[in-house]
Amino acid sequence: MTVRNRGALAAMAAGAAALTLAGVVACGSEPAEDVGGDEVAALSSATPTPTPAAPASGSVPVNPGTLPAGSEIVPPVKLSIPPIRVTATVDPVGVNERTDEFEVPPSVDQVGWYRYGPGLEADAGSVVIAGHVDSAEQGKGAFFRLRELDRGDRLTATGSDGRERSYRVVAREEYRKTKIPLERYFARDGKPRLTLITCGGPFDAKTRSYRDNIVVTAVPL
Which residues form the signal peptide (predicted)? Predict the structure, then answer.
C-alpha cells in the first residue's frame, strides 16, 4: 500500500477521523502552548548506530510502505495514558487505496497504529498512533484530551508480545494540517519514539473538519 501525496499524509494524521457537527464542543480550539519542539527535531535528526534488526534508515512512508526485512514486528495492541484517563485498543491500519486517507478505526474509542512504520521493538524511528478527537454520532474520542498532555507525563504501550513499554512525553505541538512536517513524524530513522496524533484547532462547519493536528511525542523510559 502506498502513501501517494502530501494531502494523503496529512489525512493520515487523523484527518480521516469522524467530525463533529457545528455547535458541538470544538475541542482544541484554544490549545495549550507548544512545548518540546526542539527536542522532537533532535530526536528525528539523531541516527542511532544501525543494527541488523533496525528499520531501513531514511525511509519515510512517501514511498511504498514495505516492512523492514529480517526483524520481528511487534505491533502495539493497547495504549494506556493515565493522565487523561485513556485505555484504548490499538488496531493496525494503513491507507485507504480509494481515498488516500489514513484509516483510523471507525470506533472512536479505538486508535490506529500505522503498520507500515516501525513497531514497538524498533530501535530507531517513529511509532505512529492516530485517533479520533470526537464524532457527531459517537461523542468524545480516545484522543479527545490529547492536547492536555504535558512534558513528563507517562504512558504505556502494550505489544502483541504481551510486554508493556513505558514512555515519557517530551513534546506537544499543533500544526495546520497543510504545514505538519510529516517527514519528522512518519520516519524510520532517528531515535526511537512514540508519536500520537489527532485533530485540533478550530472546527470549520463548511468543510466539516478541524483545521489542525495535535501531535504528542514520547520517548522510551
Answer: 1-22
CA 1 to chain centre: 18
Query: Which helix (H) or strand (E) element contains residue 182?
Result: helix 182-185
DSSP-derived letter for residue 102 is B
What does the pLDDT look like over 180-207, one tens digit per residue? Answer: 898 899 999 999 999 999 999 998 888 8
Instruction: For 48-98, give the secondary structure using H, E and C.
Output: CCCCCCCCCCCCCCCCECCCCCCCCCCCEEEEEEHHHCEEEEEEEECECCC
Per the listing, cell 461523542 goes with 139
Instruction: Assign 194 to helix, strand or coil.
Output: strand
Q: How many residues does the chain have?
A: 221
CA angle in degrees (0–180, nearest 5) for 201-215-128: 135
If you write DSSP's letter for every residue of 112-175 in order, what string do you get?
Answer: EEETTS--TT-SSSEEEEEE-SEETTTEE-TTTTGGG--TT-EEEEEETTS-EEEEEEEEEEEE
DSSP-derived secondary structure for 24-47: S--TTSSPPPPB-HHHHHHHHH--
Sign (positive/negative) of CA torsion 40, 129, 189, 164? positive
CA atoms within a 13 Å half-sphere pointing along the CA-CB vector of 212:
15
pLDDT tens digits, 92-113: 999 877 777 778 898 999 999 9
